[in-house]
Amino acid sequence: MHTIAAEITVQWRSAMLRFAMLHLPSREEAEDAVQDTLAALLQLDRSSFDAAQAKSYLFGILRNKISDRLRQKYRAPVSYDEAFQDDLDQVLFDKRGHWVEGVAPTTWVNPQQQLQNDQFFIVVDLCVHKLPAKPARVFSMKEFLECEAEEICSTLGITKADYWQCMSRARKQLQLCLHQNWFDKETAS
Fold first, then answer.
1. CB under 8 A, 24+ apart: contacts of 160-167
2. pTM above 0.70?
């Protein structure tokens, strides 16, 4: 697992750091979040890890690490008991801990579509990183970190009007960038 982890680290560390620096106030915090993510990779059971899914796994964990750091600054602590008072496990799993029929996650089996999706999201990532810093942060927190508008405003210290202006500008610039770098290229081929 360590050789696989080393290869994955070389391949994805700089992209993860760029993503983390977009959201966290200092480079040190961003590097800490990336290091925590890579440490989680080392703790994985080798038999349960699929190297082809490394990007999804790493960025999913990184997203959670970033969200945790941002929430830690701006929210009151919640006890473990309060956080897990719902009965979601009873809805998703039977008494033996197996998935209830009809709610288990399914696997996608179309590799061609998955490759195209991966390529599309590479272009989306490049387009987001071309945005000015403030709209990029606001858009990324909303769409990638799934934060609510109020949380984004309080985290970044901006007004609601500023939030909506940033989202509007980001969407327009992303639309233009994707049109030039993805959709026009599809129709040309």
1. 163/138, 166/134, 166/135, 166/138, 166/139, 167/135, 167/138, 167/139, 167/142
2. no
Q: Which candidate, 3, 4, 17, places its Cα nearest to that of 65?
A: 17
Instruction: List for the chain the helix, strand, coil content (%; round to 5).
Output: 75, 0, 25
Please say which residue of 78, 100, 127 terminates a domain: 78
Query: pLDDT tens across 62-98, in order?
Result: 888 888 887 776 555 555 555 455 555 666 677 777 7
d(CA 24, CA 155) in angstroms, rounded, equals: 10
120: containing domain: 108-189
Same domain, 14 and 71: yes
4 or 155, which is more confident = 155
- 121 and 49 in a single domain? The answer is no
Residues 119 and 68 in one domain: no
Residues 18 and 61 in one domain: yes
